[in-house]
Structures are given as C-alpha cells and as structure tokens.
Amino acid sequence: MSPGFHRPDPTPSGAGPARAGEPPPLAAAGVTQRFGRLVALEDVSLELPAGCVTCLLGDNGAGKSTLIRILSGVHLPTAGTVRVDGRAVRLRSPRDARRCGIATVYQDLALAPLLSVWRNFVLGAEPTLGSGPFRRLDVEGARARAGRELADMGIDLADVSQPVGRLSGGQRQAIAIARAVHLGARVLILDEPAAALGMRQAAYVLDTITRSARRGAAVLLVTHNPLHAWPVGDAFIILRHGRVAGRWEKDEVTAEMLSRLMVGAQA
Question: Does residue 193 sit in helix, strand or coil?
C-alpha cells in the first residue's frame, strides 16, 4: 500500500456494492473497435460492479484510451454491446453517457483554474434563490455545499473560495472526482488520475477513489502503473494488444505479478 494511503471507514448505510444478482451499472460484452485495417480492440468484455474499484491496466498502445472513448460515448464500437444496468445502450455522445450516470475524468480535469473551488464544484448544477427574472445564484448555499461535500469525501481545504489554480495537482484531481460523484455519477471512469503526481499527491487521489467506491460508485481506474492500481483495486483486468489477457481478484495477484502480466510474462 502506498505510503500515506489508508482505506476510509466502512461504507455508510445505503451505499456500497450492489446486492447479488443485480446487473452492474456498466458492462461491455464482445466490444470490438476497428479503424480501417487497424484493430484497436477485439472482443473485450468487462463488468463494473457498484461499490468496487476495477483497475484496467495495460502498456501504451494496449487499447485503454479506445475503450475509455467507447464507454464514455466518444466512439460507437464496431461490434459488441455496452450495457447500463443490464440494458443494451448506444452511447452516441458524452452527453448520452452522462445521462446514463457515466462520468469520465481525464488528466486535463476540465476545471477552470481561475474560478474558486466552490464555483468549480457546483458548475453546471448551481443552486439558486428566487424565481423568474429574480432568480440568482445561492452563493452562500453553494459555498457551504461544496465545503461539506468535499469534507465528506476526505478533501479538507482551508478555503473553498480560493482559485482552483492555487491547489496541488492531487487536490485538483480529487476535486474533479468528488464533483462527478456530487453531480450524480454512478460510474466513474478515471484516466491515469495519478500519472503526473508525486507520491504524496498520488496517495491523496487514491484515497479519494476508494471513498468514491465506498459511497456506491462503480469505478474504472485506467492506468499503466500497477503501483497506483494495487492499493485501491478490488479487481484487475489486463489489456494487451487490444484484447483482455485476464481478470484477477485482489487476493489472486500482487503488484509485482501485475507488472509481469502486463508485458506477457507468466505470473
């Protein structure tokens, strides 16, 4: 486990993994993606259970980015099926994905660095006061909500009125993840969230990821680094040359084994 990282308290009542027999919030079955003669993905299947962190690992060129784009509505697969709550869907755009409760947090975060933390946190879902032409932003309510929700996710900030651009990379990543949960995401797809961070900042982000799952979200952590995946993962999927090379539960592998499996060596 990464230094400074700890798993949060047990899941509060009403959150956590789905009950046995319930379909996962998001799944893919036999997904294939071709770009002309190039086969980027071939027959990829996976399930993302609620309340769990599923880690998708692969080296550069393994097909991770293509799979992210399919699950987030950027690409329609050439073949195969994407299912939300067991129902086949065609995600034709990121907006379609968001309507299904799927949020993707990329490395560029989509945060506005000059806006305050609380403005970023409620952006797109701002609380208001009054009605009609007298409707206005509930500044105090929004500020209090942001501080409360971030604290509940273990993100302690001295001042939520400071610009996001003043925060560390780890804090910005954590805010982007917490915002997606706050806005109703049931599925979180995280694209290399700790790739450019130092050890302490990475641990901060990994803690936020675990808290998100314990609140009931289905999390797909996409990374090429087993040392980022291992502390938080409940299940691990290796993607190699566009195909699933295997799936393992946490008690079946170690971080060292995952490193070997990624390059095709025997565990």
Answer: coil
